[in-house]
Amino acid sequence: MKIKSNPYLTSLTIVFGLLFFNIFFENKILFYITIVISGLSIFWLKFSILIERCWFKVAYLLSQIIPNILLTLIFFLLLTPLSILSKIFGSKTNFKSINNNNSVFKLIDKSFNKKSFERTW
User: Fold this and answer.
1) Would you list the domain boundaries of the chain?
2) Which of 22, 39, 52, 93 could form a disulfide linkage to 10, CB 3.0–4.6 angstroms apart?
3) Mean pLDDT of residues grouped by 10 in the chain (121 residues)?
4) Other C-beta atoms within 10 Å of 10: how many?
């Protein structure tokens, strides 16, 4: 699948983000970097394409890292406390985690007829 790209739009987005950060940090170096990126992106298409490739590589790298961190946090902050509370308050389930038998089969004394084999699912 080919990604539709617009290098100018990507550069504009990055410049907007840098200007937004500049409002909070009030850093002159960040402001000058923003001006240089916007100026070079306007007048030099290859620079815009280079910026876009770097931006997509950073996005790919983050897409490999962030979901793992989020799933780990969800597991340890949400599911683990729920399971501990379930163990503490003794929820009633049919699950048996300890098997003292030699087999997992259960013996059932039941007679089967022809109708019990119809529509088994």
Assistant:
1) 7-90
2) 52
3) 81 93 92 93 93 93 94 92 84 70 80 84 73
4) 19
